[in-house]
């Protein structure tokens, strides 16, 4: 019998399988694959936990953002209320100032009128006294000066 190359290739293949079985390569491969699958499962579980943590952090950040937006709206509303209150206060103070200035001006006008009336009266009294003095002096040309002085004093007293 002649052994050709095919026969020797078959013998080599069988020896190869025997050697692999003797060295327990399938068990080692199985262990390596099991170890690798366990490692992959752990990585998947860790990734799942990281994903859950990321979701929790996202929810927390969204909550904080909503709170910050609410707080910002409250601050803006408060600022608007303060601004309107300041504006109303300014209008009120302005109106009070105008009213006070108007009242002071009216009082000055009344005082000026009273002063003018008093001045006119004083001028009228002085004119009346001078006129009365002339008339009395003209009528009492040769008479007593005491009566003249008494009459002038009486006129002044009645006119003032």
Describe this structure in words.
- Keywords: ATP synthesis, Cell membrane, CF(0), Coiled coil, Hydrogen ion transport, Ion transport, Membrane, Transmembrane, Transmembrane helix, Transport.
- It is a single-pass membrane protein.
- It is built from three helices and no strands.
- It is mainly α.
- It has one domain (23-159).
- Helix 2 runs antiparallel to helix 3.
- The longest helix has 115 residues, at 25-139.
- The mean pLDDT is 87.
Keywords summarizing the entry:
160 residues; mainly alpha; proton-transporting ATPase activity, rotational mechanism; coiled coil; rod-shaped; 0% strand; 3 helices; transmembrane helix; single chain; ATP_synth_b/b'su_bac/chlpt
Layout of secondary structure:
Elements: H1 5-22, H2 25-139, H3 145-159
Helix pairs in contact: 2-3
Largest sheet properties: none
Number of domains: 1
Strand content: under 5%
The helix/strand order is HHH
| Helix proportion range | over 70%
Report, as a whole number of angstroms, the end-to-end distance.
Answer: 174 Å
Overall 3D form: rod-shaped
Radius of gyration, rounded? 62 Å
Secondary-structure-derived class: mainly alpha
Low-pLDDT runs of 5+ residues are none
pLDDT averaged over residues: 87
The number of E-state strands comes to: 0
Q: Count helical runs.
A: 3
Protein name: ATP synthase subunit b
Membrane topology: Single-pass membrane protein
Subcellular location: Cell inner membrane; Cell membrane
Family: Belongs to the ATPase B chain family.
């Amino acid at each position: 019998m002649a052994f050709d190359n095919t026969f020797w290739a078959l013998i080599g293949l069988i020896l190869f399988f025997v050697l692999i079985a003797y060295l327990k390569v399938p068990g080692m491969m199985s262990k390596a694959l099991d170890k690798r699958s366990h490692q992959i499962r752990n990585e998947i579980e860790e990734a799942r936990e990281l994903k859950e943590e990321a979701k929790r952090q996202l929810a927390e950040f969204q909550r904080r953002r909503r709170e910050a937006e609410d707080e910002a709206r409250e601050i803006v509303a408060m600022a608007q209320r303060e601004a309107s209150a300041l504006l109303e206060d300014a209008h009120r103070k302005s109106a009070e100032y105008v009213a006070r200035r108007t009242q002071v001006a009216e009082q000055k006008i009344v005082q000026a009128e009273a002063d003018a009336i008093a001045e006119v009266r004083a001028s009228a009294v002085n004119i009346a006294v001078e006129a009365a003095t002339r008339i009395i002096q003209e009528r009492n040309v040769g008479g007593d000066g005491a009566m003249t002085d008494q009459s002038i004093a009486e006129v002044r007293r009645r006119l003032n």
